[in-house]
Structure prediction request, 556 residues.
Amino acid sequence: MQKPGSFIRDKFAKLFFVNLLAFSSYSMNLMIDAILGGNQLGETALTAVSIVAPLFSVVYFFEYMFSPGYGVLYGKHLGAFETEEAYKTAGQSVLHAFMTAVFLVLSLLLIRKPYLAYYNCTGALQEEATIYFNWVIVYAAIHPFNVALYYLTMADSDSSVVFFSTISEILLNAFLSFFLCRRVGIAGLGIATAIAAAASTLVYPLHLLRRTNSIRFRFHFSRKAFFSALKLSISRSAGYLFIGLVDILVNKVILITCSESLIPAYSVINLAFSVFQTCGAVFDSAEGFLASYLGERNNYGIRSVMRIVVKTAALTSLALSALFFFCAPLFPRLYGMTSAETVLSSVRAARTMAFTALPFGFCFIGVDLYATLEHPGMSMLLCFLNNLLCPLLLSVPLAFRFGFTGITLGMALSSYLVAVLFSVPVRSWLGKAGFPLYLPDYGEDAVGFDLTVNAESITKLRKAIANAAAQHGFDTEPIDQITDALYGKIMEANPKKKVLSEYILLFGKDKLRVIIRDNGRIVNFLNEKDSVFSEIPQKSYALTNSFNRNGFVFSR
Prediction:
């Protein structure tokens, strides 16, 4: 027997690594454009990139408004063994991506002139910002499909395809940007970003060719799925919009209270927000598992996965704090900053923001968690406080009093203000019990075991099952039969592979549900005739999170 959560830990670790890359790709792609713009094209190009960059947050707002929710719905439907509904959800997600792309292109075309006029861009700055803006429009036509396919692939827990998609986008963007910007200027940065997004998107269909793929597309539109996906996604998508709005307003405040030369220094603060948001990669790595467990109404699985999330998030935040504090002098060099004032302000900003990684990271995770648990009010409140209200509430007044130093302090202190403002109303709203996670309790006594499948562990498992079943008044004979039969088949199908498994008993008043996962060869043993499985009326098999998942129901 192994510790709870050990079955999914290896898969989670792989998913976390690729998710960290995926989340980092947002900030890394902007860094590539900003670094090459500053070093290869000069500070005018860097300023142009900094001015237009908030639009990427606006694009992400609309992309993420539904796609994460469709991914969660897909996982929940599979968790409840509702495969046809899951296929319809996958189809609707792709259709929605197409509608999002059309909407974004038309909207960006309409706001192009007013947006640049807002910053009073003139001369060379206006010309370069316009060119870069035009390629953001092309990017917006491509990337919604990338996000939709990412969340569906993550629901299947396919770390390999997500890794190759993400790494191809980052490397291709860097490679093409370096060569194209030297030939066609700032347009090269935009062209490279668009091509890299297209190439990354084309990698995801490779998942459909794998044996572990559970995705099928049934193209249709359901109002119920539309509003369910919106409820699950709106707060996390709003986070991108709020960050974009903060950047747009703070850039304007810098122009009023400081000077144009300090806008590149604010890029370091913006980078900190983006990097700390990668703590969301921790939750995204676990969300596919969590969605399945929620669909199963499985208390054991929900709590196992959340223990992994909390520990990993804490370690990730501390690592990011150390990165920003000790590497602070490198940021001005990376961005090609030359002004002494800009360099000093950038270093101070990086080291000040280093102390906020932990609270910021947990706030980002909280937004996603509450949305997935269907507490949309809590999720949106936390998102509003963390990504919009508190940063502006502190940084803008302090900017008029202390200049750029005030902006830095305001941004750094905002996450601590969020903790105070959020905890008070939420505890009074939902009560103290379960604060702050508010994980659901489905009223069934859940008992779970993680094991390496072999004769010794199965013997120990049978003893543990017998004790648990006896305490709840259930007959162990039919449970022993399916346990021995299924694990016998699994060992027979995987003679040379170390197979891990998760065995869960969910005790209700009148029935017992048994859910068994394994990471062995993908095989459905329940369809075999003349076996012990054929005698069980309530049984089901579904490929979930790239694992075999067998379910059985026994009456008292």
Notes: The first strand starts at residue 445 and ends at 452.
